[in-house]
Amino acid sequence: MNGWNGTILHVNLTSGSFHYEEISHTLREEYVGGRGLGVRLMRDHYQLDPFEPAMPLIFAVGPLCGTPAPTSALLSVVSRSPLTGTIFDCSAGGSFAWQLKAAGLDALFITGRSSSPVILTVAPDATQILPAGPLWGSDIPTTVEALKERGSVAAIGPAGENGVLFANIMMGEGNSVGRGGLGAVMGSKNLKAVTVNGVGKTGIADPALFEKAHQDIMRLFKASPVIFGPLGLSEFGTPMLVDLIAGRRMAPTENFRKTSFEHSVNYSAPTIKNIYRATKEGCCGCPIQCKKISESGNPLPEYETLAAFGALNNIDSLQTIVAANDICNKLGMDSISAAATLSAWGEIRGAFPDDGEIPVLLNDIAHRRRDGEILSLGSRRLAEMLGLPELSMSVKSLELPGYDPRGAYGMALSYCTSNRGGCHLSAYPISHEILRKPVPTDRFSFSGKARIISIAEDINAAVDSLAVCQFALLGASLEEYAELLTAVTGVKYSPQRLTAIGRRIVLTERYYNCTNGFSRIDDILPERFFTEPGSSGDGINIPPLDTVRLEEELDKYYRIRGLNKNGCFDDDYFIERQP
Fold first, then answer.
1. Which residue has the higher pLDDT, 174 or 496?
2. Which fold, 7-196?
3. N or C: which end of the chain has fewer CB within 10 A?
4. Residues 6 or more apart from 67 whose CB is under 8 A from it?
5. Where are the domains of the chain?
6. Which 8-state DSSP code applies to residue 532?
């Protein structure tokens, strides 16, 4: 089949063995790839601790990867999060996805635990498990430099090796499989890095249709002010959101005690561009080029990192934030959870970390020493151990990102319903509540948000399974990508079919979580958002959230999803009738 290779490589690190498995036509067509394929492969691996050797760590690409399809150089990594206990997927762009596809694979399925640190090398002519040797203990740049001759690299740093619950897997170009601690899962397997090198090409079933769909998508990209406008993603990257979120008085500040930070201009997109002479960079073949790098070639912080190490910790120094971002990338840690954990700790101890403390604390977290030992567990466990659990600003133990829910009610509901936990990307309501795309909605109303969020979750799950960048939908839609997928695979897809596939994936994730003990009591925001107002001003009122209205909308969401009042399934009927 075009688009898909139809092959999974299974690697068992305990025995040092590997074998190839064909992916059935049904699974390819009904789960597509990326997140969907990874979630389907995880479905039968429930009630396992994330650090058990039998727990899979799955790298999965999509059928568009390896073609000129816009924003298609992505993959998803799927496993169970040690931070949240939920099923977890993360996407990352870069050449690793291209090389995995070119090596003849749609998925890499890793289980077991090596008796000593190793590196997995994958190539069309040979798969090897090699000693990691002195690379164990090395940071990400050192590891990537040592292995670059073997192809594209995905590696963990000291944080992953030491089991930090929010450790990342880092791609050689600086992109991260962030959030949820999948780097710690990789570290628990004594797997320092995976390298891939391939030479294969991805076939296209209908080149003429592909070219038409490609041109349609590019026209829509160019017409989108959010993507290619003078203040858009291509020009400034995600830091463009700093001023937008600040202007709407929903910037999480001092561990969400406030929603406005007067010094955010110090790390706004224009400030970054002026000080660091930021230039454009992006994933392989991506026309948007939303990543920004400094003159010295270092990746500059994304919006989430700026917000988390900035206002959330009451820090106004751009230099401190950039340095914190560099340390997280170097040591392999999620910057959102790291900064949010420091913020919770700062409120608990009565003093937020200052500019000089941040680098020391981040290094201590990665190596789990001194205060870093308790900080490495994330904000929920930290706050519980220190007797103030209400000061962890998290949902399902996943720290909330840079959008205060009191300023966007769709985001409030989305944080609750996300299968990953407090995640902004599951439905990304910022697109319509703040960016006004595809249509604007009232950010201070719950009305209709249950249906909007459920549809958006389905669409985003489909996009993650294609696997393409969610930013693409700020210009194009599933209609154009369905046509592109049809052209590549020769299998007829429509937006409706892709949305139905997305719904299946979301419900499969929900089933996995419910099987592992999650329920309605986990679909709730911290109490602070219902009892404390935000920082009103500039003609904008930021009251506390209405508990009753959120619960009513959550009930509607469950009904739309076909779930019971506990947010789960009454029986196994759903899963029994899935491919």
1. 496
2. Aldehyde Ferredoxin Oxidoreductase;  A, domain 1 (3.60.9)
3. C
4. 3, 202, 204, 210, 488
5. 7-196
6. S
Contact between 101 and 198 (Cβ < 8 Å): yes
- 216-239: per-residue pLDDT in tens? 999 999 999 999 999 999 999 999
Cβ 297 vs Cβ 281: under 8 Å? no
Our CA angle for 162, 157, 306, nearest 5°, is 105
Rounded mean pLDDT of 555-560? Answer: 98
Cβ pair 277, 294 in contact under 8 A = yes
3-state helix, strand, coil in the chain (%, to 5): 45, 15, 40
CA distance 145 to 38: 29
- What SS3 state is found at 218? helix
Q: 371 near 353, Cβ under 8 Å?
A: no
Q: What are phi and psi of 301, to 5 degrees?
A: -65, 145
Q: Which of these, 110, 120, 118, lies nearest to 56 by C-alpha position?
A: 110
Residues 328, 361 contacting (CB under 8 angstroms): no
DSSP, res 104: T
Q: Give the span between the Cα atoms of 511 and 506, in whole angstroms.
A: 9
Amino acid at 72: S
Determine the average pLDDT of the residues in 342-354: 98
Bond prior to 82 in cis (omega within 30° of 0): no
For the stretch 433-473, pLDDT in tens is 999 988 999 999 999 999 999 999 999 999 999 999 999 99
pLDDT of residue 33: 98
Q: Which amino acid is at 141?
A: P
Q: Give the integer Cα–Cα distance in Å for 280 and 306.
A: 18
What percent of the chain stands above pLDDT 70? 100
Q: Tokens at residue 36, please?
A: 């969907």
